[in-house]
Amino acid sequence: MLHVAICDDEETFVQHLNALLTRYAQETGIALKISTYRDGADLVDPYDASLDLIFLDIQMCAMDGLRAAEQIRKLDSKVAIIFLTTLTQYGLEGYQYQATNYIIKPLQYIRLKAEMDKFLARRQTEPDPFLLIVNDTGKYKVFLRDLRYIETFNRNLLCHTEQENILSYKSMKEMESTLQGQGFARCHTSYLVNLFFVKGVKKLEITLVTGETIPISQPKRKEFMERLTEYWGDLL
Q1: By percentage, how much of the chain surpasses pLDDT 90?
Q2: What is the pTM of this model?
Q3: Are 204 and 172 in contact (CB under 8 A)?
Q4: How far apart are CA 206 and CA 193, in angstroms?
Q5: Where are the domains positioned within the chain?
Q6: Mean pLDDT of the chain
Q7: Which residues does the UniProt record annotate as the domain Response regulatory (predicted)?
Q8: Prior bond of 219 cis (ω within 30°)
Q9: Looking at the predicted structure, is the pLDDT value of residue 85 above 80?
């Protein structure tokens, strides 16, 4: 399922783009979920981390597309953004927010199809695995390359990422199963660590490349060291 957002304050254009995307889904057989927003502020707060692609109008009243993109990039570094505009200079400015492209209105189906084809081609050749974490504060798309380690926290889990710490309501057993084969290893009853970030192990302590230290329990040390040796061997 591909989750696409349309953020534009022109109702007629939203309906038009929605129809074009529906046609594309019908012709290609791709399962498509379309969410619509009337303003950048609605898109950003609360932000839906399950989004894969955003069609974002630059000129809107309360929060324009450029300001919205700036906020989105603080929450999601990977979602694709295609800016919509009637003026070419705005599109060029949008590239500072890692825009996938920009489209000058009005939009015809042939252009929409070309953009969707390019987006899907890049998506297939550049897989970037992630976890979708849902808690009381919202939805978070956590890319595994940013997830340093996970620890138990008040009967829940705390996911330590490059940007922030995110609470998950899953059990450690569920999380370990989800991340199986993704370069993570259990080093302690309360810790699951991303082997990519491991700098070294000394006695019953793991040092990460970030300078953080994580305990390693004696019962799990042998299996963890085997996993780490295997992981490092694959990288050598």
Answers
A1: 60
A2: 0.62
A3: no
A4: 9
A5: 2-125, 137-235
A6: 88
A7: 3-120
A8: no
A9: yes
Q: At what angle do helices 11-28 and 109-125 cross, to 10 degrees?
A: 60
Phi, psi of 196 (to 5 degrees): -60, -30
DSSP the chain: -EEEEEE-S-HHHHHHHHHHHHHHHHHHT--EEEEEESSHHHHHTT--TT--EEEEES--SSS-HHHHHHHHHHH-SSSEEEEEESSHHHHHHGGGGT-SEEEESS--HHHHHHHHHHHHHHHHHS---EEEEEETTEEEEEEGGGEEEEEEETTEEEEEESS-EEEE-S-HHHHHHHTTTTTEEEEETTEEEEGGGEEEEETTEEEETTS-EEE--HHHHHHHHHHHHHHHHHH-
CATH architecture for the domain at 137-235: Beta Barrel (2.40)
Task: Please list, residue by residue across 26-56, b when 16 or more beta carbons sit within 10 angstroms of its beta carbon and e when fewer do.
Answer: eeeeeebebebbbbbbebbeebbbbbbbbbb
Residue from 214, 185, 190 nearest 201 by CA: 214
Of 128, 134, 130, 150, whose CA–CA distance to 142 is shortest? Answer: 130
SS (H, E, C) 58-79: CCCCCCCHHHHHHHHHHHCCCC
Q: How confident is the model at residue 60 (pLDDT cuts 50, 70, 90)?
A: confident
Residue with tokens 């619509």: 36
For 122-163, what is each residue's pLDDT tens digit? 888 766 788 999 999 988 989 898 899 999 999 999 999 977
